[in-house]
Amino acid sequence: xxxxxxxxxxxxxxxxxxxxxxxxxxxxxxxxxxxxxxxxxxxxxxxxxxxxxxxxxxxxxxxxxxxxxxxxxxxxxxxxxxxxxxxxxxxxxxxxxxxxxxxxxxxxxxxxxxxxxxxxxxxxxxxxxxxxxxxxxxxxxxxxxxxxxxxxxxxxxxxxxxxxxxxxxxxxxxxxxxxxxxxxxxxxxxxxxxxxxxxxxxxxxxxxxxxxxxxxxxxxxxxxxxxxxxxxxxxxxxxxxxxxxxxxxxxxxxxxxxxxxxxxxxxxxxxxxxxxxxxxxxxxxxxxxxxxxxxxxxxxxxxx
Amino acid sequence: xxxxxxxxxxxxxxxxxxxxxxxxxxxxxxxxxxxxxxxxxxxxxxxxxxxxxxxxxxxxxxxxxxxxxxxxxxxxxxxxxxxxxxxxxxxxxxxxxxxxxxxxxxxxxxxxxxxxxxxxxxxxxxxxxxxxxxxxxxxxxxxxxxxxxxxxxxxxxxxxxxxxxxxxxxxxxxxxxxxxxxxxxxxxxxxxxxxxxxxxxxxxxxxxxxxxxxxxxxxxxxxxxxxxxxxxxxxxxxxxxxxxxxxxxxxxxxxxxxxxxxxxxxxxxxxxxxxxxxxxxxxxxxxxxxxxxxxxxxxxxxxxxxxxxxxxxxxxxxxxxxxxxxxxxxxxxxxxxxxx
Lengths: 304, 340
Known about the structure:
The structure holds two protein chains of two kinds.
Chain A: H1 13-16, H2 18-24, H3 37-46, H4 53-74, H5 83-108, H6 121-126, H7 137-140, H8 146-167, H9 173-202, H10 205-218, H11 230-238, H12 248-261, H13 285-298
Helix pairs in contact in A: 2-9, 3-5, 4-5, 4-11, 5-9, 8-9, 8-10, 8-12, 9-10
Chain B: H1 15-40, H2 53-72, H3 74-78, H4 87-112, H5 118-126, H6 144-161, H7 170-198, H8 202-221, H9 233-238, H10 246-264, E1 274-276, E2 281-283, H11 289-296, H12 303-316, H13 318-339
Antiparallel strand pairs in B: 1-2
Helix pairs in contact in B: 2-4, 4-7, 6-7, 6-8, 6-10
């Protein structure tokens, strides 16, 4: 199993994640076909894929991260500064939503409804309450202006790239397969965001001021991404996941390169206490969920 | 530029000017002959070909209005992205609205080949000087509207647009080929939303019928005024831009909907739909053309809202576009310094 080379920053993905692709065929997915949430649902249903409770809880965490971010990014569609960005941010939102659907579907394989059926992605997305969401607080931070959105996405894409790159080697074949698909997409997100950080920092005085402000707004929530706990410790020992703290060095180095090129400093701001993995969220999540869940909850049991 | 061109009172033409005018006239005559031949052969005009000023103007108006419609048309559906009732539907809806941004981009590009910049077209839209399809001035009130818009609005758009794939202006026709392919997906997803709702709970079925009731007449009016009240149609047909008349397309569309609504288990809010054996055409009940004119004149339910939203996005994004331009200019300068 080859580990993708990430010594360079945002760059050529054709070489970067080749290892991820070959991992994908380790699951029962036809090579060349994209892994879809529907495939995972089928595997869960037929018992071909069954996450352990720990893996399910973990998949829920990173699935929630992606879901909440997709919900945030989706708001930009029809509101972006340029048509090209309506498309780009929409694409990133779609990718995140796709990852969320896969992780949540898989997580649901170890969770049951009252009638004994496995929880679906929609059971998890629409019928959990705020404190049951496991996303870290960075993902629910409001979009702010374009610079704040770019700042949030900059942190996210570098973090997710390091995470998914390592997860392609997970002993859990389904996690590895989802990550193998996701890492390729997130590599594009890194590229897109790094370019915008450079443009905004090096554009006008106004854009530079806003970029700095955006980074300062998001940076308090960076530390929480890399916090270990008992679950990640157990999973790391089993080889199913990696300790979040082990991603920090590469994250700091690669984001540092972009910030240095942009002549920006790593924001010197106190870290927020976080708590999203235990269901403690910022004030923002409640509104986001209220909007996302309203229609589904109005018609419980309906199919769409 | 020659100095005499700046004078407010034209001087007597010089010999050079007379010669240039004659040459221009000759080129125009040859251009017109070529243009007429291409149209007669039902072949294609390309951007660098000579074309009559009125042809260029008509196309520019049509293609830019079409582009604006795609962009404004993102709004009613974007309104439901955050509330889509399943993650799969959310994903499909996002992809669909994103497709529309893509259609806007191709169409602005096609329009640019006629000599106007995208910035200028966007400015005209925001200033309220340019038109877009009136259908998008109606509100998307429930989730079922995502179905009705896909099925009826995109369905009507397809009827209109498939013949445009053969439009005489090359860049427009080619853009339409790709757009029509994507639109047919959009229509099918709209149909599927309605089908699912119609087979769902009583409340869901009611929601679907209500949406069809609200979107049916506005969708029929998308084909434009009746033929005897459509002054531009004749010339557009002579130029092979338009292939079928408004009423002809409308009738064809009604015929398709009559079949499909049965499969949906819903009804059309029109008890006068019938097939006329004599004319071999589908007929429908009267449409409220006064309402059509009102919406066209800016007095529709969402005209102000749609334009304001576009204006806001444009204004809020100004600093970003300025930053990108400034950064690009700095990069060019840096490269020049390296080269020096």
